[in-house]
Amino acid sequence: MKYWSMVLHFYQPPTQELKITKSVLDTCYLPLLKMLSGKFGFGITLNISGSLMVQLEKSGAKEFFDLVKKLIADGKAEIANSAMYHPLMPITPKDILIRQIKKNSLALKNLFGVASTAGFFPPELAIDKATIDLIQSNYIFVDENAPESNSKIPDSVVKYDEKYLLINNRPIGELFRSYPERLSAETVVNLAHKISDKENLIVTANDAELFGHHYTERLQVLADLLDDKEIKFIKASEAIDKFGCLAKTISGVKASTWQNCQNFDLWNKNVLQEEYLELLKTVYGLTNGNLEGVAEDLFDQAYSSCYLYWLSNWPWWHPDLVGTGARNLIKCIRMSNIDNQKKSKAEEAYHLFLNKMWQYHWSGKVEEKYKEWQSQI
């Protein structure tokens, strides 16, 4: 018997158009939750970003919240906490992370009635030692590159500083994410037996949108896997209870993410990403982090990893989406009580960034980068 602990990560950027969120809700989230509600004898872990929770509440998506509550009440699902607006945690100031983790916890309590959580899902599974030390949870999902270990075969669960790390099985996770053909449950099961024959536990972290939004057939694949007699899906806390006593203790963790990159360079490598990070730093410095209410929330939203991701041009490029993040930053400055000289400095930095971004957009370099990326895949 193979045991499988899967976390499904539900997320949309904080400035996503509500019509797009509504489309994903109808084509993916609701069918996925209804499918899970119709199955029995399994457990799964859900991570629902506060960014998405806010949008779904505004959209009046009562059925979504009811389905999740029912899965929790029936013992089929548990919730892992995260940071409210999906920041890349290792490159975000500590005080902002602490605030966003508290905000996400409050949203879970208010919208799902979840008073406490045992686990944590770092956005993009991006962690380093400082991030792990910051997170006060019993278990944390990390990528297989995170543990400092001499083992050639990644463990599924290890222990670090009294915390359990559940290790994403990247080959199986990537099968859902990027298999180029129609996927079948048989293909997944065969790979699971092939690469994890020495372990009885498989851990995967997967975007919920894979199951019905990005790929139409993969919802059925997950349904078939839940019915497989040789696989038992269990919640993350159940995995810790069953396999935690066997977990090796590791001495350290490495900076890592579930993406194929080094030193988080998918988010901080090129000039425009550096400019956006500098804009964040400028606003943070001018306000001393002292913002309240709506202004504070706009500031936190601007730290979403998506804006840096869509500036990468490797291959993702979306200047309009990035522009909304930058606008949130300048809005929070305009709403703040800082003096006019500081506001003027922020405005100058904001317009300078926008000018550089759009100059790049019309320069032809975007298409050159697309071609370069395509030649390497």
If you had to describe this structure to a student in words, what would you say it looks like?
By secondary structure, the protein is an alpha/beta fold. It is built from 16 helices and ten strands. Strands 1, 2, 3, 4, 5, 6, 7, 8, 9 and 10 form a ten-stranded mixed sheet that branches. The longest helix is centred in the C-terminal third of the chain and has 22 residues, at 340-361.
Task: Give the structure's gist in a few sentences.
It contains 16 helices and ten strands.
> From N to C, what is the helix and strand string?
EHEHHEHEHEEEHHEHEHEHHHHHHH
CATH topology of the largest domain: the name is: 7-stranded beta/alpha barrel
Query: What's the CATH architecture name of the largest domain?
Result: Alpha-Beta Barrel
How much helix, percentage-wise, in residues? 40-55%
Q: Strand portion, in percent?
A: 5-15%
Low-confidence residue ranges: none
- Major sheet: 10 strands, mixed
Task: Tag the structure with descriptive keywords.
377 residues; alpha/beta; 7-stranded beta/alpha barrel; 10-stranded mixed sheet; 16 helices; 13% strand; globular
How does the SSE layout of this entry go?
Elements: E1 2-10, H1 18-37, E2 44-48, H2 50-58, H3 62-73, E3 77-81, H4 94-112, E4 119-120, H5 129-134, E5 139-143, E6 157-160, E7 163-168, H6 170-178, H7 185-195, E8 201-207, H8 218-227, E9 231-233, H9 236-243, E10 248-249, H10 265-268, H11 271-287, H12 293-301, H13 305-309, H14 319-335, H15 340-361, H16 365-375
Helix pairs in contact: 1-3, 2-4, 6-7, 11-14, 11-15, 12-14, 14-15
